Structures are given as structure tokens and as C-alpha cells.
UniProtKB/TrEMBL annotation:
SUPFAM superfamilies: P-loop containing nucleoside triphosphate hydrolases. Its cofactor is Mg(2+). It comes from Arabidopsis arenosa. It comes from the Eukaryota. Keywords: ATP-binding, Hydrolase, Magnesium, Membrane, Nucleotide-binding, Transmembrane, Transmembrane helix. InterPro entries: AAA+_ATPase, AAA_N_dom, At3g28540-like_C, ATPase_AAA_core, ATPase_AAA_CS, Mitochondrial_chaperone_BCS1, P-loop_NTPase. PROSITE patterns: AAA. Residues 241-389 form the AAA+ ATPase domain. SMART domains: AAA (SM00382). This is AAA+ ATPase domain-containing protein. GO terms for biological process: response to stress. It catalyses: ATP + H2O = ADP + phosphate + H(+). Signal peptide: none annotated. Residues 308-332 are annotated as: Disordered.
């Protein structure tokens, strides 16, 4: 039986001959395949076979969460970006991103973030999840930039659970984190990179320290609180969840301080937009759709947005004020930005792109603005930031000198009713000395010189 088996076994030369024939056939087949089938079709077939076998043998499922979605920030990416830093103790790779942008306090505790390709493990209702941040060059636009995205990996059987419950959970968690955040940011737009760059915002002005008439201050606080709690109301009446404020008045009357007080009260970051850097309406839409929920869009000095034109008009005001008032010229918007394009983000269709947003315009010359900006419904609240009043003076004196009464208060208050002095001018005089007698005497001399001038 054994001898029969060995007699049927092919010889080494036969095996080598068969192998040579198969190799030749394989080479011939591959050559014909490459000559007959185009490269695109071959790549497509190979990719389909690869996807099929990887899906069949792989038990994991991966969600890809890109930073940008339909020309706006992907809110799921944003939620993950806020939520994941709370899980840094579960990072499985041996690295952390460390940053500190607090210029006022170099000794401040740094912030820790997620490096690219670092893996973070989360657990949700007993399901193990793995997050990874990736970054790659995006060459789809005319200007290449970094494209960031998260991979969220779980077992296939939990895919539906993650889709229905987990994403809603991190969205809710991120809102809670943002509401309780310690640091706010002020963003400036960088046209070259098409991104908003943040910096730590640490303006210490609050409504408690803001020198403003109490009736106006209380009205504004009630309005802000009603807006913050008005999600259901805005949805019911079919309006975008946004609020517009126009701050107007002479320079130095505290418009910037009021913006800071609003940001600190609402715990909102600020997007400071310089209209001079905007080329056209299309760019304006792109810029504003990149802002985030729960934020302030600030457009300062709207009457000076055209730069040289505005300065020229101011000069003409001085030379021929009566004629200017009669003609009442309007300051144009810069370059190719149209009024309709701007209004679209105030109360048009594009105003609904971001929720819970406050839009603030500031101007030194309300009379120069186009009437279309001032119509009812455009800016919900118009706030006059006026010259210093006796109440504002006493508030500033309490803050800077630590006193609430003084013999010189009465003559100073009478002078303030007759002389136009801005809170900024009064503050500058109050900072001359810590001695109330010296400071208040100098303030009286300053007001007298303004009265004479």
C-alpha cells in the first residue's frame, strides 16, 4: 500500500513544471488584465473587495465626525471638542496637548487638550468607545488648509444605540460645560486661513462694576435674562433665537465696557468682526456661518467702516456742520459688502444659522447709519451711551477712590450737568492720584477748562 502511494506521487520535476506553467499563466493573465481593464475600474474592483472583506471580518464600526459640515461648524464635532477634555484621565496614548494663552497671568494654570492621533476611551451605558482626533490637509479648495475630524469606534452591535442616545448625551453635556466655563474667548477672523482665531477674554467689567444709570442697567439685565430663557418662545413665534443691540453715543462713553459686561453676564464668547477685512457678501456669509451658538457677534464703529471715506466726512462735518445735517449723508459699507448682505444676518434667512446669538453694533454717529439698519425689528434694543451724569460720576468715584461722599461732590455734579464730559475722561482724571482731595480738585479744574473751551 505504501509503495503504491509513492508510485502515485508526482516527481519533483513534474511539480516544478506545473508551478512554472501556473506562474506563466498568472503573469499572462495579469498582463492582459492591466491592458484590457482601465486603472479606474481595477481600483474600484479592488476597493470593493477590500471593503467587503474588511466589513465581514471586522467587528468594529467607526463614525467619522468632520469639523466642517455644509459650510458651517459641525455641531457634533464642537460638542465632542468640548466634552472630551473632561476625559483626559482616560487617554490611552502617552501624550497631552498643553497650551497657555493668558497674557495677563503667565503663572496661570495651563489648559490641557487632545493631541492629533491620541486615543481617548469613554464608556456609555456599559459600551466601550474609542475617540481619535485626526488632522490632514484639505486640498479641495483653492487654498489648502488643515482638515480636522474625529473617529468614534464602537462594536457594530451598538451602532444604533450610539446614534440614538450617545450623540444626544455629548451634545447635552457640552452645553452644560459651556454654561459653567471659567474662561471666555474673543475671536478675530484671519482671512488668509479662513478661520476665527481665539484669545482669552478677561475683561473684568460686570454689571456690578459698570457705571451706568440703574434704570437702564436693570432694564438691560431683564432683557438679557428673558432672551436666555426664551428658546421656547422664539420657536413658538417662528423667529430665530437671536437678539440685536445698537449701542450709540460719543466716543469714550463705555460702549466696549458694556459689551464686556454683557459677555460676562451671559457667559458668551465674542466674535469681533472688522468689516474692513470683508471683501464681499459671499465672504461675509462664510465668516458668520463659522461662528458658534451662545456667542456675541460684535461689529464696532459701524459708522467708520469705510475708513478714509468716514474720516473725510468727519472733516467735512467740522468745516460745514449745518450743511451736513441738512444733507444727512450715510457712510457706505466697505468695498463690496452690501447693506442687504449685512441685513440678511441681522433678520434675514441667514440669521437662523446660529442659535442663541447676540448681535451688537456700536456707532459714534447714529445719524450716519442707513435708515434700513434702524427700522423696527432690525436692532431690537437701541441704547444711548451718553455723557457722564452725576450718578455715573459717583459710581466711578466709589470704584476708583473708594469714597461715597465728599465736600466737592456737589459742585462737580452741578458742573457735569452743564459740561459734556465722557466717563472715559472722568476716569482718566480719577486715576491721577489716590488722594481724593487732590484728585477731585484736579477734576474740577478739568471741567472748568472744558467749560471755557
Amino acid at each position: 500500500m505504501a509503495s503504491s502511494f509513492f508510485t502515485k506521487t508526482p516527481s519533483l520535476s513534474a511539480i516544478f513544471s506545473i508551478y512554472t506553467s501556473l506562474s506563466a499563466f498568472t503573469i499572462l493573465f495579469r498582463t492582459l488584465l492591466h491592458q484590457i481593464i482601465p486603472v479606474q475600474i481595477r481600483d474600484f474592483i479592488i476597493s470593493k473587495f477590500t471593503d467587503y472583506f474588511s466589513a465581514y471580518f471586522n467587528s468594529n464600526f467607526t463614525f467619522i465626525i468632520e469639523e466642517q459640515c455644509d459650510y458651517v461648524t459641525n455641531q457634533t464635532f464642537r460638542a465632542a471638542q468640548v466634552y472630551l477634555p473632561t476625559l483626559l484621565s482616560r487617554i490611552s496614548t502617552g501624550s497631552l496637548l498643553v497650551s497657555s494663552s493668558n497674557l495677563k497671568n503667565p503663572m496661570a494654570k495651563p489648559k490641557f487638550g487632545i493631541p492629533v492621533k491620541a486615543k481617548i476611551i469613554d464608556e456609555f451605558q456599559g459600551i466601550r468607545l474609542e475617540w481619535t482626533l485626526f488632522s490632514a490637509k484639505d486640498n479641495t479648495s483653492y487654498m489648502s488648509k488643515q482638515k480636522r475630524y474625529f473617529h468614534l469606534t464602537c462594536k457594530k452591535e451598538f451602532r444604533d444605540k450610539i446614534m440614538s442616545d450617545y450623540f444626544a448625551y455629548i451634545a447635552k453635556s457640552s452645553v452644560k460645560i459651556l454654561t459653567q466655563r471659567d474662561n471666555l474667548n474673543i475671536h478675530t477672523y484671519i482671512p488668509e486661513h479662513k478661520t476665527w482665531e481665539p484669545a482669552i477674554f478677561q475683561h473684568h467689567t460686570t454689571f456690578e462694576t459698570l457705571a451706568m444709570e440703574p434704570e437702564l442697567k436693570n432694564t438691560l439685565i431683564r432683557d438679557l435674562d428673558a432672551f436666555s430663557n426664551g428658546k421656547d418662545f422664539f420657536k413658538t413665534v417662528g423667529r430665530a433665537w437671536k437678539r440685536g443691540y445698537l449701542l450709540y453715543g460719543p466716543p469714550g462713553t463705555g460702549k466696549s465696557s458694556l459689551v464686556a459686561a454683557i459677555a460676562n453676564h451671559m457667559n458668551y464668547s465674542i466674535y469681533d468682526l472688522q468689516l474692513q477685512s470683508v471683501k464681499d457678501d459671499a465672504m461675509l456669509r462664510q465668516i458668520l456661518t463659522l461662528t458658534e451658538n451662545r456667542s456675541i457677534l460684535l461689529i464696532e464703529d459701524l459708522d467708520c467702516s469705510s475708513g478714509a471715506d468716514a474720516r473725510k466726512e468727519d472733516k467735512e462735518d467740522d468745516e460745514n456742520q449745518t450743511k451736513k445735517k441738512k444733507n444727512n449723508p450715510k457712510v457706505p459699507l466697505p468695498q463690496n459688502v452690501t447693506l442687504s448682505g449685512l441685513l440678511n444676518f441681522v433678520d434675514g434667512l441667514w440669521s437662523s444659522c446660529v442659535e442663541e446669538r447676540i448681535i451688537i453694533f456700536t456707532t459714534n454717529h447714529k445719524e450716519k447709519l442707513d435708515p434700513a439698519l434702524l427700522r423696527p425689528g432690525r436692532m431690537d434694543v437701541h441704547i444711548l451711551m451718553d455723557y457722564c451724569t452725576p450718578f455715573v460720576f459717583k459710581k466711578l468715584t466709589a470704584l476708583y477712590l473708594g469714597i461715597e461722599e465728599h465736600d466737592m461732590f456737589e459742585p462737580i455734579e452741578k458742573m457735569l450737568l452743564a459740561v459734556k464730559a465722557t466717563p472715559a475722561e472722568i476716569t482718566e482724571q480719577l486715576m491721577v492720584s489716590k488722594n481724593p482731595d487732590v484728585t477731585l480738585k484736579g477734576l474740577i479744574e478739568f471741567l472748568e477748562s472744558k467749560k471755557i473751551g
